[in-house]
Amino acid sequence: MKICICGGGNLGHVTAGFLAAQPSLEVSLLTRCPERWSRRLTVATPQGENLYGTLKTITDNAETAATGADMLLLCLPGFAIREELRRIAPFVPAHAPVGSVISSTGFFFQAADVLSPAQPVFGFQRVPFIARTVQYGHSARLMGYKPSLRISVERLDDKENFRQLIEQLFQTPTVLLGSHYEASLTNSNPLLHPARLYTLWKDWHPGIFYPRQGLFYEEWTEEAAELYIQMDHELQLLLQALPVTPGCIPSVLDYYESGDAVSLAAKLRSIKAFQGILSPMVQTPQGYVPDVQSRYFTEDFPYGLAILQHLCHEHHIHAPYINKVHGWGNGVLKAE
């Protein structure tokens, strides 16, 4: 089976290496920096083992990458998805499913605009791995597996067979969702990151500096947890207005097995895969300031939270917390 991975970020490294380590797969990579890549990728696992994958092709040419592929999987931030779809669209085989490793930044909506109406598409509700690049183009670290995966599939007759294929490829139990909304809308990053960012820096403006770069998860506060819960409550109200399976997106309290803001904050502080992750900041001679060019800002506000905010408005869902945080994030981005 020929799989093309589009994108060379953290998830691109781990996904390409993880799949290429399986002898039955031929994995190619479409990246804007092919000269920086080795054909042999090393992926360290949480168990202390190394996976070794050999890439068949590494290229920045969309035609070379897409032609003959049996599946294409985008591992890209929200702002890069539409352009990548436009690049590959003329060359994607009609039978080849095109997917995204994460759907919460608008993949299904953008694919509907760009790809052929008959092109099979699929998307993950949450990323299959927690991933970090170690040496760009050469090695990466798979920091955590998900206990199960949830995917949405459209324009395929045998969705169950495809579900089984994804389960086999990612070696993780996989659930088939009932609607693309169930993959596109999530209370993961589009709510998780903005809730924390808002409570960290809601009073920040240019000219304010901080003495240190704090830990994003290990110093998670009860205030951030409470805001996260309130934003998730608004998402749950939205889901009631959409054609989705009841309970398709568990509440954050259920997902993290918590009862309130206190226990949720403690849970987020304790997750091993989140350990050591710093808050997105840059150092200046005067101190630290928020890094508004990080994907926490450039992806989660205009491509993640914005979708939820738009749908809440469209379906007349009262969402004061989502509106407040979305408005603050947009203001920070515009100020920059």
Topology:
Elements: E1 2-6, H1 10-20, E2 26-30, E3 40-44, E4 50-54, E5 57-59, H2 62-66, E6 71-74, H3 78-88, E7 98-100, H4 107-114, E8 121-124, E9 129-135, E10 139-145, E11 149-154, H5 159-170, E12 174-176, H6 180-184, H7 189-201, H8 222-240, H9 252-255, H10 261-270, E13 281-284, E14 287-290, H11 295-298, H12 300-314, H13 320-335
Parallel strand pairs: 1-2, 1-6, 2-5, 3-10, 6-7, 7-8, 11-12
Antiparallel strand pairs: 3-4, 8-11, 9-10, 13-14
Helix pairs in contact: 3-4, 7-8, 7-12, 7-13, 8-10, 12-13
The share of residues in helices is 25-40%
How many helical elements?
Answer: 13
Quaternary structure annotation:
single chain
Helix and strand run: EHEEEEHEHEHEEEEHEHHHHHEEHHH
Q: What is the overall pLDDT average?
A: 96
Strand residue content: 15-25%
In whole angstroms, the N-to-C terminal distance is 45 Å
Strand order of the largest sheet: 5-2-1-6-7-8-11-12
The description of the largest β-sheet is: 8 strands, mixed
Sheet/helix structural class: alpha/beta
What Rg is obtained from the alpha carbons, in whole angstroms?
Answer: 20 Å
Q: How many runs of DSSP E, i.e. beta strands? A: 14
Q: Can you tell me the residue ranges where pLDDT is under 50 for at least 5 consecutive residues?
A: none
Q: How would you describe the shape?
A: globular
